[in-house]
Structures
1.
Amino acid sequence: MTKQLSIAVSGLHRGDNPQPGPAVIRSIRRRYPSAQIIGLSYDLLESGLFSKSDDGVDAAFLMPFPNKGPNTLIERLDEISEIYPLDIVIPCLDSEIPNYLDLSDEFKSRRIKTPLLTKKSFDRGSKANLFQLGKAAGVRVPRTIVVSDLMAAHKACEEIGFPLFLKGKQYGAGRVTSPAEVAYVFHSLMAAWGGPVIAQAAVFGSGDEYDVVGLGDGRGGLLGSCAIRKIMLTGNGKAFGGIVVADPALQESVEKIIRKLKWWGPFELEFVKGKQGHELIEMNPRFPAWTDFPSQIGCNLPAMLVDMLLSLPVAPASPCEPGRMFIRHNLDLVGDISQLAELSSGSLIGDAQPNLLPSLEPVN
Amino acid sequence: MSANRTRKNGMNGGAVHLSNLKIVNGCLAFDVCSGKFHRISESAAFVICELKRQTPFGTLITSYSQRYEISPAIAARDIELFLNDLSVVR
């Protein structure tokens, strides 16, 4: 009997702005069906807590919000590890990543594996630095100006020209079509997410949006990726449906960025098709919410990430076939007030039995 | 064919490369590069398939006129108009 693989995953809410956690869990279980999945939740009502399907968790714990800092995070993970010794933690929310980067040595000393992204790569791929990254990598990025106060925001908007987008450092964005709208959008973003705010030029062209999920090997190479055109959007612009494309120009842009950053681990690149081709508008340092779609068509990047973290040999994923598509499908999950009561005390222990089950070999 | 033609500026609002076009079940043209897809008529599917096979233009006009029982002149005009719409790079 050996210890069962225990993997903690966050970002469990599949609401109108779905988080990646359940998709990551489902993908991992395809390869590691016996893995014990520990949910890291920020709210009693995160929908993934109530799933009894293969995207559900075996146990869940309430977490301190990321703004509490890295020390609070590691203290909580230590508490969890006393009950379920964690082998791997996969943070799935943008706001969590800085704390995990700060704690890389702590994780190493505890033998907990987390994505080995470097702070330098993370910073270079951030919204604030994306324009410079694009320039360095030879990838078109809409003009971007970082601002910290309203006067600077007005100046940046005039310089870039209307319409344009004002974006929060990690989340949120608003389209601004005239000087009269600048103050409202700027203050909304500052109040919700803090500064700075990023002013980014709008892309003129077909307006088609493309997303690419991938996995970098940390040496500049790409272990696998899947590019989609969004064919259905939610009210806030998230992909509700997508279709696989095979565009060499798009692929080249992705490879240039990953090569330049020597990116390690999961990423999502968002492009808009402009008059002169694809323009990179955002890079996310994690799996997107649709990451289980490529997993279902032979490109299981979350499982490959687990392989990488376990130092297992990782063969590059085969390309996804153009024309394969996904449509999101929301269902109602049944819960019980007793689950809320249990989780409100800090943890929700399902049928999970720590350290009692035999480990199983990964299945392909 | 004309009734089911795509928009004026080409299938994707720009040039479509024949090599990127995949005809699905004879009724849908899918551009694997842009990810755009459109319903097309049976005759449009026929023309695209022939062009992808690199059928010479003269042969295409002959087979098209025979298949749809129209004169070669009308066939030639119809195909030209379709290709203009598609902005196909041959």
Note: The two ends of chain A are 22 Å apart (CA to CA).
2.
Amino acid sequence: MPGILPKHSNSEWIAALSGEGAACAQMLSALEVYVRRALAVTLRRRALLAEELDDLIQESFSQILANLHTFRGDSAVPTWAVAVATRVAFTELRRRDQRAKKHVPFEQAQDDATSEFGGSREFSPEVSFQRKTVLEALESEIETALTPKQRIATLALLRGVPTIEIAERTGSNQNAVYKLVHDARLRLREVLERRGITVDVITDLSIGEGQP
Amino acid sequence: MKITAEELATLLELLGITEDHEVNCEEFLSLLPGYLERLRDKQELAREHRIVKQHLTICPECREEYEGLKDAVDEGLL
């Protein structure tokens, strides 16, 4: 760990973060400075105002203390604290982004996430024809093989709706949304395989010419 | 809820990398601090590297968080 924090064992950190008194307050304060510095970097790509960053740091730090019991011990406490703070801050930012869109129904959501997929890859006429056939089969299976909940959650994620938003609007939680969409992907893979469209075929059709 | 051609293409690629057993975002977060420390210390990453890479490909939200944390590692803040 870089030398901007006094060196303590994890058990000392846990005791300090759960305890009271001047020594605990001093360690807590040192950790807060450390998290603040790291969070200013982890959130940098979002170009936030100083007061927005302050709000997020405050909220994140209170969540670190509330989630101390989830620390597994396979890293130093300060590294874990920064990872938790980053998750809390980004989740809150996604919530705010979504609120700014004034509760657009999932089906009208526009994908403003930059996708690594699709894009402007080039395919030979033969591969293009195969892709078209497979994509038509996939579109048909989305309608018939998925449950309405699976379909809505899968398409909402593809449109860049944050997981937290899907969870909150469906009265669920983020883990349940992940499972719902994972099950949907497994189901689609299974039904496509029954049509002879194997994972190998999918992989071949997903890679444009000249791709590694 | 009409799906666009681009969304179908994206979903097709996601199906190509879907695994029977995947970590969810909460499990991913619990792996991440140890992973980042081993990355920082240039230690062996083989065990969790595949899991982390697969989840980052599937999940744009965790990818955004990872990129921020990686910036902090690169700048010597973690």
Note: Confidence is low (pLDDT under 50) at residues 113-119 of chain A.
